[in-house]
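G.,

No rush on this.
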Amino acid sequence: MHRHNLNTTGRSKRAFTISSSLRCSRILRAHQPGETTIALVSGPYQQLLDAAIQHLQELKARGVRFVPVAPETLAALHREPQVAPARSPAAPLAPAPRPAPLPTPRPALITPRPAAQAPAIEQALPLALPGETPAATPAAVLSPEAKAAAFAELRQRVMACVKCPHLAASRKNVVFGVGSPDAELMFIGEAPGADEDAQGEPFVGKAGQLLTKIIQAMGLSRNTVYIGNILKCRPDTPGQAAGNRKPTAEEMNTCLPYLHEQIDLIRPKVIVGLGATAVEGLLGKTVGITRLRGNWRTYRGIPFMPTYHPAYLLRNQAPSEKRRVWEDMLQVMEKLGLPVSEKQRNYFLKG
């Protein structure tokens, strides 16, 4: 069997084109004409290869050009597949089992099984649709004590972080996050402001006070949800006596692994992205927040609801804008299975 080099292409070194992924899958099951023996893979493995090829072809037909590939996947793809012993030319070949029909792909991520149970081909091709992010590798469920210890260790690393020297030099406090580590609902903003930097807690300024009111209107509290930011330090504002600035993409990408660890430890059932900058930092450049808000996405395998930042509602206090945010929260409440009263449904509606 010939070995083939697979080259990454397109926008990222961790993304394969659909065409190259198809070639990879076909190479794994192919044999060279003229050989006297044929290396046969097991029936289940052959079935997985056929299923993967069919799924890639369906994605390609729908216009999807890239599939994300994790670093460990590259190693898996370059390993030689295990083969069964070659048969004698005289021995009749058993017919290959027909692959089971694939279910119609849903517009959401494929949730992976634990790594110990997932076949190699599934680990090698973690597919996601555009505008969504691959689910995190499922981790073992931690005991309350182990989760508390993991949170404490993560907090210690974040508090001492100096990956962005300009931010570390200008900050007053690292803003780690606040709320319950067992929260079913997580709110994520872009970065701390001046008030948050001074107090070391996210969303404590005027926008944070409005967020607290929204949470309370949902029948929850700041202690029962989790609130955090992508960036843990306030963006520096050299030469400015007041005000805040938008964090750069580089700053957010540097800090994003900390947020991923928080999400993976908390395991919320729903994530709410607050504002255009935070949503862009999580999902990448897609479309404007006006078109994104109110439409479910997926982030690390978790239902993700983009909505306006509370600061936007402070600038534009029209009941219609408040209603749009509240409609997003009603969807979140329904997704979480929270009771919704008629009074709650009628908030900000004109009489």
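When you get to it, here's the other one too:
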Amino acid sequence: MFRPLRNARASSIVADKDGGPANVPGAGISSRPLPDHVAVIGAAGGLGQGILCVCRAEGIGFTAIVRSRPERIAEVPVGSRVAVVASLADQHALAKAFTGSDAVLTAIGLTPASHDRSALLSRNTATIEASMLAAGVDRIMMINTLLAMPPGEPASRAMRFFTKVPGKMGRGAREQQAVVDALGNGAFASLRWTLVRAGVNSKGRAEPPVASADWNGAMNSWLPVSYDAMGRWMLEEAAANDFILAAPLVSRQRR
């Protein structure tokens, strides 16, 4: 179930399939819908907390999925909950956590536990897909990087460079590219997925991002938006379905 967006500051700018604007920000109120309830994988991270912040502000129910330490999720409203799922390979626990949601949003960052196969989205797509179908959910939003090419296309030169960098940066780039490759090879084929190639970080500007199908003719810049702004866009897109089976660029508008 979805409902109209209430008390929004401004709507996101969404580009049409040719890269031009499909709509522009209103005078403070958005008509874009929002889901009633979402499941958020990686809810304790920066983007995950941004998504939950918007959920609280808009009265959206959430299931915050964490690997451990559920106490990190504060202010859990009535109708929302925290689910501890230690492994993304645990189909039963995931299906239970997904039940009652309109969409699943991933906000998984690279952590020390990311060495563990059970923490990686790319290694557990089949289990996540089966868990969603068992729970009656078929909409998933996944976060990635602006450097990524759409699924099915060769990795960009920049991504190939960063996958070879030692340490955390290289591991993160390899996991992000592995998710893109998995989608290109048919992962989540039975789901309505969106891969968000995002410009977002903790220092990003708190403004609605622009979303475009690709760089050609896009209004996107390389500059990031805040976690809350990206979280709002992901929640809106989870209901609007403007980019099904697509990998939109989502970042600050080019000035």
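The two ends are 36 Å apart (CA to CA). The chain is about 30% helix and 20% strand.

Enjoy the weekend,
O.
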